[in-house]
Amino acid sequence: MRAGAAILGLLLLGGCAADTKIPDQPAMYLDLAQAGAVLDPQAAAIMISQYRQNNGLGTVAVDLDLMKLAEQQSQAMASRNKMDHDVKAPLDKRLAASGYPATLAVENVSAGYHTLAEAFSGWRDSPPHKANMLKNGVTKLGIAASYAPNTKYKVFWTLILAST
Question: Which H or E run contains 145?
Fold first, then answer.
């Protein structure tokens, strides 16, 4: 009787597991150069936090206000087909205009990378971008990737790291 109950329980659990969809690929390898693709900010925070921890620094967490600012910057670059920190305004002015109380903030922008893994690798291999990712004292991040199919780069990236 107990064995029958145990088997029934396992079958029920197995049925629940079958409903769980396993992603086709990790979020860091999702091709963002296609309509409807969505960047996973939590995957970015984990990736950058692990990199920071490997270099003796603290972790960073996703901040919704920084996410909005990063999205605005990426969309501005995409709509103008121009990769530039100041396409809307310099970072400090954008932060002030939004009311974000940053005591420290840095920004990486890039274009042409189709996946989070590519963007991260590009930033890691560029001394000024690497320095930003390894900035001591930052605790929060906002990240965005905007797809612009009719542009040279296709995807425009913004990473803002800050503390309040």
Answer: strand 140-147
